[in-house]
Amino acid sequence: LLRLLEAQLQEQRREYEEVVEALKNQVDAVQEELEKQQQAFLQTLQLSPEALAEFVLKQEITRLTNENLDLKELLEKMEKNEKKLKKQLKICMKKVQDFEASQATILAERRQQEQNMQVAVQRKEKEFQGMLGYYKEDEPLLIRNLIT
């Protein structure tokens, strides 16, 4: 149990050291970026008003260009998505039309079968007067057999 706890403690210490190292690297990167920004700021303070205005305009143009490129990329993605969705919609509409057509065909077939059954029933009722069919000359024999 003690060895297990020791191993867990060492593992946690290793993970902690990795996290601390990653955070140190992030701090170093942020410090470097801050130094660059401070140097750029100091340089802009030393510029004449015309050069400062030009520098600010260049920065704004760069920012707007990057934003424009991002928006173009987003537009292209959305256009691709729109095309994909339109294709899916066409496929779904075709399936719905096929389904409706098949349902209409099935309904028409059922109506036709019902009409055929009604016609068949009407014919049977017209053709037969009773449950038995017999010849007129066999009637006395049939009556005698029924009575016995």
TrEMBL record:
Coiled-coil regions listed in the entry: 2-95
Key words of the record: Coiled coil
Name under which the protein is recorded: MYO5B protein
